[in-house]
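Renewal narrative, Specific Aim 1. Our central claim is that a sequence can be written position by position from structural information alone. The example that follows is taken directly from our test logs and has not been curated for this report. It begins with the structure tokens describing the chain, in the order in which they were read.
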């Protein structure tokens, strides 16, 4: 992977059906002490969620991309919902890593033996995530990415080409093999990866997940030109647009 790390990095340590990953986000950082902010009702009881995994664990364990960030304010830092923040803190992550306990990107820390920054949950010695079992949705999702398309009209599911596993899936195949065909911003995945992508899309557009994403729109990233679009997420787009219309409508 490139020097510009993913916004969500896996932490190779924890295998899922495959690997581990994390993700991105953007976001400012208001310094608010945990426990001192009022909790909007719609954010209170969002459950922890899980996403189908598709990358072999060993790939993540040997990868040097995820969970590491070049800048302290990288927009790729993973976003945690309120429930995910509570779980992370319960598993030993300092409260100070989360400036807004109702949902925010995690605050990264300087790499103890190198350049750049690390997610505070990442163990650089073992290359494992210390909170793998409760890692956030954003990390579970990676290398899949939920983002706006280039026209900012549709929310789409994409796959981050910074993930070495994706490149491994597209190299060494014949030109006629549709699984390596990359054109018009769309990547035709291998049948196995396509199955996982569809499972992820189905999970994303399930009612419970739409609620989470509507409550935490920061989980939908801006357009990234190194993320290959896999498919549109029509139900999520409509859900987000509906919320935007409701918020912009004058109240009586
Ligand atoms: S929470 Fe775990 S998987 Fe996510 S960025 Fe941090 S170390 Fe990586």
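The sequence written for that structure reads:
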């Amino acid at each position: 992977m490139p020097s510009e790390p993913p916004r969500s990095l896996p932490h190779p340590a924890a295998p899922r059906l495959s690997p581990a990953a994390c993700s991105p986000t953007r976001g400012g950082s208001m310094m608010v002490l945990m426990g001192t902010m009022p909790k909007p009702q719609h954010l209170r009881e969002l459950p922890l969620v899980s996403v189908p995994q598709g990358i072999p664990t060993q790939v993540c364990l040997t990868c040097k991309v995820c969970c590491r960030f070049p800048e302290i304010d990288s927009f790729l830092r993973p976003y945690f919902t309120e429930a995910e923040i509570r779980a992370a803190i319960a598993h030993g992550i300092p409260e100070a890593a989360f400036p807004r306990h109702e949902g925010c990107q995690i605050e990264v820390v300087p790499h103890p033996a190198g350049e750049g920054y690390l997610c505070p949950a990442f163990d650089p010695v073992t290359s494992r995530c210390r909170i793998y079992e409760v890692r956030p949705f954003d990390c579970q999702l990676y290398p899949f990415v939920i983002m706006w398309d280039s026209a900012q009209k549709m929310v789409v599911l994409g796959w981050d080409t910074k993930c070495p596993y994706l490149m491994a899936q597209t190299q060494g195949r014949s030109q006629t093999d549709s699984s390596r065909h990359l054109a018009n911003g769309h990547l035709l995945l291998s049948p196995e990866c396509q199955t996982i992508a569809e499972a992820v899309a189905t999970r994303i557009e399930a009612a419970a997940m739409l609620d989470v994403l509507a409550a935490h729109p920061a989980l939908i990233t801006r357009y990234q030109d190194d993320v290959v679009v896999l498919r549109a997420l029509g139900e999520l787009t409509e859900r987000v647009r509906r919320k935007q219309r409701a918020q912009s409508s004058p109240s009586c």
